[in-house]
Amino acid sequence: MGSTGNGVSMLVLFGIVVSSMVVACAGNLYQDFDLTWGDNRAKIFNRGQLLSLSLDKVSGSGFQSKKEYLFGRIDMQLKLVAGNSAGTVTAYYLSSQGPTHDEIDFEFLGNVSGDPYILHTNVYTQGKGNREQQFYLWFDPTRNFHTYSIIWKPQHIIFLVDNIPIRVFKNAESVGVPFPKNQPMRIYSSLWNADDWATRGGLVKTDWSKAPFTAYYRNFKATEFSTNSFSDVSWQSNELDAYARRRLRWVQKYFMIYNYCSDLKRFPQGIPAECRRSRF
Ligand SMILES: *[C@@H]1O[C@H](CO)[C@@H](O)[C@H](O)[C@H]1NC(C)=O
Q1: Which residues contact 167 (CB under 8 A, 6 or more apart)?
Q2: How far is the CA of 212 from the centre of ligand 1 (A)?
Q3: Which of 13, 206, 238, 262 is deepest in the core (most CB within 10 A)?
């Protein structure tokens, strides 16, 4: 009898543990983020399951993570400003503080209805950026939520869209390029007006009659990598398998519209050292 009773209570206990894990996975945006500017233009609702930022003629808005991260995988689903989003920029990035800060950026440059957003990416190390790569997306990012992720390890930074790698920034310290690895970063996002440059280089201005502009966020997930696990052999091995490398090449071939590494005019003294290394 004793054993059956224990079995049942173990089962009940297991059920409770599993369901609380599910709740933890679903997350609560109130616990993870602070709404930092824009007054009530930034909102968390649906019991912490949905966050929105909006922009009107008076102000944009933004939020930041409560926690700082040093290496990890950060996933978030975004649904971008729909309709005529020309002139607006939705920035979603990791950054440390100060003049020699590191930064890993996704920036979504809006467009008039039916014309494609540009996904702009950049990596700053020790306060220096100038490492832009830009892409069109292979879907309409305003229609549904899509997952935008950053994998940040001592060996590399990988940008992913719906789990497809679009960009890899390898650690090139061996050729003198600083790599972000000592400064913890917070997650930031903001929606603001940048019609002096965002859409067709500033030609198309924000249409304020369409304001407020709103972007949505959900399903945030941060997986921290403990630093002592970096000695593990799995860290040494290539992050991207053959399939992922094919996807990366597919994105780079058909959707990349700007790559600083191929902008020879911009670097008359020679392209940056990290560009000369073989690709991932
Ligand atoms: C907006 O659409 C135009 C015309 O298709 C395109 O040239 C441009 O790259 C698009 N995106 C942005 C952000 O300007």
Answers
A1: 121, 133, 158, 159, 248
A2: 21
A3: 206
Residue 149 lies in a domain: yes
CATH number at residue 62: 2.60.120.200
Q: Do residues 135 and 255 lie in contact, with contact meaning Cβ atoms separated by under 8 Å?
A: yes
CA distance 4 to 9: 9
For the record, the structure tokens of 136 come out as 């069109």
Q: Looking at ligand 1, which residue's alpha carbon is closest to its atom 10? A: 116
Strands (E), 22-71: 33-37, 42-45, 50-55, 61-65
Beta strand extents in the chain (DSSP E only): 33-37, 42-45, 50-55, 61-65, 72-79, 88-95, 103-109, 118-124, 133-135, 146-152, 156-161, 164-170, 186-193, 213-224, 256-259
pLDDT (average), residues 235-258: 89
Query: What's the token pair of residue 206?
Result: 């924000």
Give the pLDDT confidence of 91-106 residue by residue, as tens digits: 999 999 999 999 999 9
Average pLDDT over residues 130-140: 98
- The stretch 256-272 carries a mean pLDDT of 95
157-211: per-residue pLDDT in tens? 999 999 999 999 999 999 999 999 999 999 999 999 999 999 999 999 999 999 9
Judged by DSSP in three states, 105 sits in: strand
Residue 9: inside a domain: no
Q: Give phi and psi for 41, each to the nearest 5.
A: -75, -20
Domains identified in the chain, total number: 1
Domain that holds residue 272: 29-276
Active site residue 239: no
Is residue 5 situated within a structural domain?
Answer: no
- Give the position of tokens 């390029």: 177
Find out whether the beta carbon of 200 lies less than 6 Å from any atom of ligand 1. Answer: yes
Cβ–ligand 1 distance for 109 under 6 Å, the answer yes
